């Protein structure tokens, strides 16, 4: 009986109420109730899949700040969720949150999951977050996907660090710096 | 002020990685379930209480604490590249504009709150704000007199789901 009581006590301490786990006060303050419930369900699903949840919250808050209608916000959060899921599949279970976020953006910019997996294979010293972000920035600046990928993967093969990738971006896109 | 206001997104993700496994349901063994159901069916009274053994209880508590501590340490070591050991960098956002009323900065780092990060006017119509950011990728934009304006000096964000201009900053490790 003592063991059973101890077990139940541990479970009670470790497991917060389901509602508390799902609710984020930032969402409650900025979204209407219907939108909030849908976004929280997505956040809960992402958490269950060990995906970063903060990008989903930020996407919803961005939509709220920009005055987007609720269904539009939910669609955007779903899309971000799908991107994160693909990114994690490409990078593997050991990927950190910032790497998953960067990979999701790279995939949306046109990288294939094979490309993302390849950059993971030749991972430079600082991880793959910055190389993937630089790839995305180059594509956003108008460079073709293949050319941007070639530039980034060549530097990765040479073991460039994060600053080297940012320098590469600034060299290739002289009209665009970073703040 | 929210309890986690002083946590940034990296910290929150890190804590989440540790906490998520702890929230997983714990499956009880068939043996335990059978015993519970049997007792309910027979309406048996309380089980005679086992004698309290302080040494065993203390050992069990120490074991739980050790397992938790090991989980925290392992979680830190596998939390991805340097989430815990990287400190924030102070980033200065600059916008040159003729606005004479209000310029604010919104983005992934301030919950897209239009009131969180006002820019301060300087000479020559240069507005600035400094924000501590951990290494990572952040989307942001300026609001100038109520209008959304992308940072002309930064890469554009491709994932613009709401039809307004958004920029990106990538903060590297030192």
Question: Could you explain the architecture of this structure?
Answer:
The complex is a heterodimer of chains A (179) and B (174). Chain A contains 11 helices and no strands. Chain A has 179 residues and is mostly helical. Chain A folds into 2 domains: 16-91, no CATH class; 93-174, no CATH class. In chain A, helix 4 (33-48) runs parallel beside helix 6 (70-91), helix 6 crosses helix 8 and helix 9 runs parallel beside helix 11 (162-172). Chain A starts with a helix and ends in a 7-residue tail after the last helix. Chain B is α+β, with helices and mostly antiparallel strands and 174 residues long. Chain B has 2 domains: 9-77, no CATH class; 89-171, Sandwich (Immunoglobulin-like). The longest helix of chain B is centred in the middle third of the chain and has 24 residues, at 54-77. The radius of gyration of chain B is 26 Å and the shape is elongated. The two termini of chain B are 31 Å apart.
């Amino acid at each position: 009986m003592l063991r059973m009581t101890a077990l139940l006590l541990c479970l009670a301490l470790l497991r917060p109420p389901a509602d508390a786990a799902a609710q984020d006060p930032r969402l409650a303050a900025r979204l209407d109730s219907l939108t909030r419930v849908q976004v929280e369900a997505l956040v809960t699903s992402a958490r269950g899949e060990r995906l970063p949840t903060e990008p989903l919250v930020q996407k919803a808050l961005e939509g709220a700040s920009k005055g987007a209608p609720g269904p539009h916000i939910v669609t955007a959060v779903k899309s971000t969720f799908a991107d994160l899921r693909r990114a994690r599949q490409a990078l593997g279970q050991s990927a950190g949150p910032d790497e998953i976020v960067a990979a999701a953006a790279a995939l949306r910019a046109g990288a294939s999951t094979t490309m993302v997996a390849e950059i993971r294979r030749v991972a430079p010293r600082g991880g793959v977050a910055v190389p993937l972000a630089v790839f995305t920035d180059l594509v956003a600046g108008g460079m073709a996907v293949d050319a941007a990928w070639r530039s980034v993967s060549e530097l990765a093969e040479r073991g460039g660090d994060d600053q080297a990738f940012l320098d590469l971006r600034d060299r290739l896109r002289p009209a665009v710096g970073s703040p | 002020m929210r309890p986690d206001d002083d946590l940034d997104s990296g910290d929150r993700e890190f804590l989440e990685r540790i906490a998520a496994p702890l929230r997983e349901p714990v499956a009880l063994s068939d043996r335990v379930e059978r015993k519970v159901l049997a007792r309910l069916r027979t309406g048996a009274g309380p089980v005679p209480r086992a004698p309290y053994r302080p040494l065993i209880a203390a050992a069990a508590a120490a074991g739980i604490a050790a397992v938790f501590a090991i989980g925290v340490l392992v979680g830190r070591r596998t939390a991805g590249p340097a989430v815990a050991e990287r400190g924030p960098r102070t980033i200065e956002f600059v916008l040159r504009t003729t606005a004479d009323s209000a310029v604010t900065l919104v983005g992934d780092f301030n919950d897209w709150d239009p009131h969180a990060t006002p820019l301060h006017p300087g000479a020559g119509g240069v507005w600035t704000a400094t924000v501590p950011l951990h290494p990572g990728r952040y989307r942001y934009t300026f609001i100038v007199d109520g209008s959304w304006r992308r940072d002309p000096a930064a890469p554009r964000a491709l994932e613009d789901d709401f039809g307004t201009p958004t920029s990106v900053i990538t903060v590297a490790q030192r």
